Amino acid sequence: MSAEKYLVTGGAGYVGSVVATHLLEAGHRVTVLDDLSTGFREGVPEGAEFVEGRVQDAARWLDGSYDAVLHFAASSQVGESVVKPEKYWDNNVGGSMALLAAMRSAGVRRLVFSSTAATYGEPVSTPITETDPTAPTNPYGATKLAVDHMIASECAAHGLAAVSLRYFNVAGAYGAAGERHDPESHLIPLVLQVALGTRESISVYGDDYPTPDGTCVRDYIHVADLAEAHLAALAAAVPGEHLVCNLGNGNGFSVREVIDTVRKVTGHPIPEAAAERRAGDPAVLVASARTAHERLGWTPARADLAGIVEDAWNFTRRNA
Ligand SMILES: NC(=O)c1ccc[n+]([C@@H]2O[C@H](COP(=O)([O-])OP(=O)(O)OC[C@H]3O[C@@H](n4cnc5c(N)ncnc54)[C@H](O)[C@@H]3O)[C@@H](O)[C@H]2O)c1
């Protein structure tokens, strides 16, 4: 693809900064729009233009010189969404609605959106395909699903070319960018905090699930593989179509396998603390990434859990 100009909302955050880095490495021009609510100024890759602002005000910056928008900006803490749902409807749905309006008036007609496995809720079968029922079990997933529907109608009515990428569990690090959520809720960085000595033990929420070792199974996808899918999605987007693709490895790892892998990679004993199951935590969440393979020509290249954990561990130590 020849060099293009992209607006990356949320490009100071974990996934957005890695994707922005990949876009720059591929020779594209990038403007990051981020309000730094959960992102970091130093996360914006060198070479990207940075605008500190809200997606709700995207119309101020977006003009016809942009070829496409990659929309990462969102509130994404599942637990917080249960106690403060209004924040999630406002930021995720309100922000996306304002962005679509800004894109319509600027004539920017291509979008890649960060959707999530949380749109499916409790899976009806494994691996999960894009045609499976969507029944989110928390407001975060519900707001992301609402945005997917909003984008589908924008494509049908106004010819937008859009791809929603439904990430499963993103992990690992790339270059200077890695995972730094506050509070952290993702398993790998939490276990690494124990290895680093900033957390005493790792809580294992339920060990009596119908899985081989009784703990929950999740699909971990390396953030660099995920970034490559975004470049492929930009190239594959078709006017008038809303394409939805799961992004995962198609391989599940249990909580206990993750903890064991962290033990091997870091040499730390990682004490565990048994805890009650969390409401709305499905036993197994594994993606079928067949659509991404067929439509985007995308196959994850970094499916090895130890490699993902090593990259995350190197990032964690560098930023301790
Ligand atoms: N990390 C995962 O495992 C995962 C899984 C599924 C989906 N997602 C989705 O991927 C996207 C990125 O996730 P992440 O893990 O990088 O989160 P993150 O919190 O690190 O990044 C989000 C970025 O968006 C910015 N932001 C939030 N609201 C904004 C607004 N209104 N205007 C401008 N900027 C705003 C934040 O400051 C932050 O830099 C999110 O949309 C999330 O829902 C992430």
Blueprint (SSEs and pairs):
Blueprint: E1 5-9, H1 14-25, E2 29-34, E3 49-52, E4 68-71, H2 78-83, H3 85-106, E5 110-116, H4 139-158, E6 161-167, E7 169-171, H5 187-196, E8 202-205, E9 217-218, E10 220-222, H6 223-236, E11 242-247, E12 253-254, H7 255-266, E13 272-275, E14 284-285, H8 290-296, H9 305-318
Parallel strand pairs: 1-2, 1-4, 2-3, 4-5, 5-6, 6-11, 7-10, 8-13, 9-14
Antiparallel strand pairs: 9-12
The chain binds nicotinamide-adenine-dinucleotide (NAD).
Nicotinamide-adenine-dinucleotide binds at residues 9-10, 12-16, 33-39, 54-56, 72-76, 91, 95, 114, 116, 167, 169-170, 181.
Rounded mean pLDDT is 96
Q: Write the H/E string, N to C.
A: EHEEEHHEHEEHEEEHEEHEEHH
Helical element count? 9
Radius of gyration: 19 Å
How much strand?
15-25%
Overall form: globular
SS-derived structural category? alpha/beta
Q: Main β-sheet: number of strands, strand sense, barrel status? A: 7 strands, parallel
Which distinct ligands sit in these coordinates?
A: nicotinamide-adenine-dinucleotide
- Tell me the total number of β-strands: 14
Instruction: Determine the N-to-C terminus distance.
Output: 38 Å
Helical fraction: 25-40%
Instruction: Give the strand order of the largest sheet, numbering strands 1, 2, ... along the chain.
Output: 3-2-1-4-5-6-11
Low-confidence stretches: none
